Amino acid sequence: MEIQQRLLKFVTRTNWVLFFLASISGVVILPPDFSRGIIFGGLIVTINFHLLYRTLKKAFRPSRLSSHRVVLAKYYIRFLISGAIIFVLISGHYVDPLGLFIGLSVVVASIMLATICELTKHIFKEAT
């Protein structure tokens, strides 16, 4: 259980770090609609990640296990709300779609970084 907690903590922190780095660099370097896409995309995906974590944490609490239907219902509600927000942002031309895509990739990037870090720890641990 130790490795799972360590990975979760790393991914959670890295989500926010990557989000802030991408947002700040977008505001400084890129046009406003592109940087808004990065900011809104990063917020959508990071908040969804945290809400999913809370839902799963409550669902698997031994004292009161939740039905899988409740977990799936919450997941699909979040999915629909996120889709509606993304639709409004793109159709209203509030954000650049490529910037939004980059912002939505924040969690994927942090998971990839966590995987690379754990693999390098594992490889160097076996080498010694």
Structure characterization notes:
This protein is mainly alpha-helical and 128 residues long. It has helices at 2-29, 32-59, 68-91, 97-104, 106-127. The longest helix has 28 residues, at 2-29. The chain is flat, with a radius of gyration of 17 Å. The model has no long low-confidence stretch (mean pLDDT 89).
Calculate Rg over CA atoms. Answer: 17 Å
Q: What gross morphology would you assign?
A: flat
Strand content: under 5%
Based on secondary structure, the structural category is mainly alpha
Number of domains: 1
Arithmetic mean of pLDDT:
89
Oligomer: single chain
Q: How many helix segments?
A: 5
* Count of beta strands: 0
The string of secondary-structure elements, in order, is HHHHH
**N→C terminal distance:** 24 Å
Largest sheet data: none
Uncertain segments: none
**Helix proportion range:** over 70%
Summary?
The protein has 128 residues and is mainly α.
Topology:
Layout: H1 2-29, H2 32-59, H3 68-91, H4 97-104, H5 106-127
Question: What key phrases describe this protein's structure?
Answer:
128 residues, mainly alpha, 5 helices, 86% helix, flat
